[in-house]
Amino acid sequence: DEFLKRLSHIQSLFLEKNVPVVNLLSLWTDMDHTSYVDYITDGEPVVPSLYAQMFRSKTSEPTVFPDDPNKLPDDPNKPGYLKISEHTAAIAAAFGIGADDADRLRADPWVIEDDNLTLDNLSRLYRHSLLARIVELPIRQYLMTLRLIAKDPFTPIPNQIDMPTALLNRFDLM
């Protein structure tokens, strides 16, 4: 019963805001990074993950982003370590936002805590850029609003049924 309620909230948001479900799910977890086979479609094509769609095909720097984002080193002393600030343009293009807005999100300690190019940080940046789009706020205004709502609007409000409901209630989308 609760699972169906959660699905209905996500479906409502999908219908109201026209955001694909796979994108919406990234509001509550790391962005999808595993391809899957679409058994319903003729020919059973492999469907690329959200991460692959964003960072392996749309960016001007496809070699910067590995096929498996879990292989992005988070230790500055490891080979291959990357900083978000060095790839802001590619990240902005993948998220469909301006480079200045991507840089604002990156610099905000309520969005991410460091400049490491990791799946967690990419997911957090995307989560905030997506929520700003869903609530129809420019990034600057979204970041100011965030201070009024919660440091992490993606965590449940105490005594709420679930995270999707809590998030939607915070921004008065339900």
Query: Which class do the helix and strand fractions yield?
Result: mainly alpha
Give the strand tally.
2
End-to-end C-alpha gap: 19 Å
Q: List the secondary-structure elements in sequence, H or E.
A: HHEEHHHHHH
The shape is globular
Rg from C-alpha positions?
17 Å
Helicity level: 40-55%
- Overall mean pLDDT stands at 83
Strand content: under 5%
Q: State the strand order across the main sheet.
A: 1-2
Low-pLDDT runs of 5+ residues are: none
Largest sheet: 2 strands, antiparallel
Number of helices: 8
Oligomer type = single chain
Summarize the structure.
Helices cover 45% and strands 2% of the residues. It is mostly helical. It has a two-stranded antiparallel sheet with strand order 1-2.
Note down, in words, how this protein is organized.
The protein is mainly alpha-helical and 174 residues long. Helix content is 45%, strand content 2%. It has eight helices and two strands. It has helices at 2-17, 21-25, 50-55, 88-95, 99-107, 119-134, 139-149, 163-170; strands at residues 36-37, 46-47. It has a two-stranded antiparallel ribbon with strand order 1-2. Strand 1 and strand 2 (46-47) form a beta hairpin. Helix 4 (88-95) crosses helix 5 (99-107). The longest helix is centred in the first third of the chain and has 16 residues, at 2-17. It is globular, with a radius of gyration of 17 Å.
Which tags fit this structure?
two-stranded antiparallel ribbon, mainly alpha, 45% helix, 174 residues
Helix/strand layout:
Layout: H1 2-17, H2 21-25, E1 36-37, E2 46-47, H3 50-55, H4 88-95, H5 99-107, H6 119-134, H7 139-149, H8 163-170
Antiparallel strand pairs: 1-2
Helix pairs in contact: 4-5
